Amino acid sequence: MPELPEVETVRGGLAPVLEGQRLARVEARRPDLRFPFPDNFVQELTGARIVRLDRRAKYLLARLDREATLVMHLGMSGRFEIARPDGATPGAVRPGEFHYAPDPDPKHAHVVFETDAGARVTYYDPRRFGFMGLVDTATLELHPWFAGMGPEPLSDAFDAQHLTQAFAGRKQGPKTLLLDQRVVAGLGNIYVCEALHRARISPFKPAGRVAGPRLAALVATVKAVLAEAIVAGGSSLRDYAQADGALGYFQHRFRVYDREGRACPNEGCQGVIARRVQAGRSTFYCPACQK
Ligand SMILES: [Zn+2]
After folding, report:
1. If you measure from the C-alpha of residue 254 to the centroid of ligand 1, how many angstroms do you get, rounded to a whole number?
2. Which residues sit with Cβ closer than 5 angstroms to ligand 1, an ion?
3. Phi/psi of residue 283, each to 5°?
4. Catalytic-residue membership of 281
5. Is 0.90 surpassed by the pTM of this model?
6. Is 291 known to be catalytic?
7. Per residue in 53-63, pLDDT tens?
8. Among 128, 28, 21, 42, which Cα is nearest to 85's?
9. Which helix (H) or strand (E) holds 234?
């Protein structure tokens, strides 16, 4: 499932071909993804110019020169592929420490955007948990997809003071709270496990009992693990885009996620990474150094 750094990498890959461009042709090849497309989806987008491509949590926001914003969510398996006017065709490239999903099957190509500069952007989604909608730009923050959403983890609004207030008196573990979109937007299981491990904070300890200075460190590690993954994604994207323009997911080399039974990589720790399943989700952590 794409997490925030993957979505940001996709945004970074799509922006050069979409920003400032007019959509000459839009095709929805089925009536729905996870949700039905709006009735006016194709008409509203055809001829619209994409002013800017933003991200909020794990949503891509294509700001249009119209009253609506095109909102896109990749769900579990959504991905984009770019075909350039020179006819470059996709192929499997798996640079460095990243790996990509298998080549997309044409039967899972559900939405096609063509710009007046001749680029074609195709959305593939085998499982169709992704979705697209048109949301009134002026009231976007009030839309159910966004209402009540906490600050972006990489923004200045996500700071030690914010986390201190969010954790105060809470009995749930830090992991549960960091996954709560009202506390901070867009964080998923993988990066929360990584950040808590690097900050040496137990995922299960009552959040209200994590002392203040450790929360400042936790904020810094959340930002660091996301920023590192975005940088890694960006460099993989440059390699990949040169080859064929396809945008896949990348999998970062994680320190704790999916590493049960391995030695803890934290300096000076002799512990072994453990896994505990809660509510169907695995938490990877080091029982020795995460207190
Ligand atoms: Zn450890």
Report:
1. 14
2. 264, 266, 269, 271, 286, 288-289
3. -105, 125
4. yes
5. no
6. no
7. 999 999 999 99
8. 21
9. helix 212-243
